Structure formats: structure tokens, C-alpha cells
Amino acid sequence: MVRDICEVFCFDEKKVAAVKGQMDKIEGVEQLFKALSDATRLKIPYALTLEKELCVCDVVPIIDATVATASHHLRVLRDMGLAKHRKEGKLVFYSLGYV
Question: Residue 19 — φ and ψ, nearest 5°?
Fold first, then answer.
């Protein structure tokens, strides 16, 4: 039977040091995954890849939500830098942001 674990514990100190030195680069990634872990919230950036810009009123039927719920999800995405917005008269339009 083939075992899927090492029979002897040893590690490459140079590789481990190099990888550990890069770990600070993932700071904030947990929040990014948390923001996108909601299935409804994930639909919004996907919709914004299909249409360059959507009004909050467009997002409501796309995600089958209320205006309040859509606004909440859009605000979370905006706070994470995944979406940006602009106001035109009484309408607010969202597009993809840059992380």
C-alpha cells in the first residue's frame, strides 16, 4: 500500500524561508474570499463582466433581491475595491473596481 505521507520528516530550509517570506502578500485575501463567498454577491462581479456598467436598479432583478439587499452587497464589494460607483442624477451605476 502506498502511503501519502513522508516516512521521514525533513524540509528544505531555503524553500520554506522563501515561501514564508512571501506570506505577508496574502494580507487581505481572506477578506476578499469572504466577500466573494456569498453566492448572491458573487453574481454581481460576474454580471459586471458581462455588462460594463449596471445601475443598482438593474442589479435588483439580476440577483433576485430587494433594493436594500442589492445596495448592501454592492457596498461590500465597493469597500473591498471590487466595484466602483458613479452617480448620474438620481441613479447610481456600478462597474468593476480594481483590487
Answer: -70, -45
Q: Say what the pLDDT of residue 26 is.
A: 81
CA distances to 45, 47, 78 from 96, in Å: 7, 10, 9
- For the chain, what is the domain count? 1
Residue 54 domain-assigned (yes or no): yes
Q: Tell me the pTM.
A: 0.72
pLDDT, average across residues 47-70: 96
Q: Is the pLDDT score of 98 beyond 80?
A: no
Distance CA 42, CA 89 (A): 27
Instruction: Let me know if residue 85 belongs to a domain.
Output: yes
d(CA 86, CA 68) in angstroms, rounded, equals 18
- Residue 96, beta-bridge partner list: 83
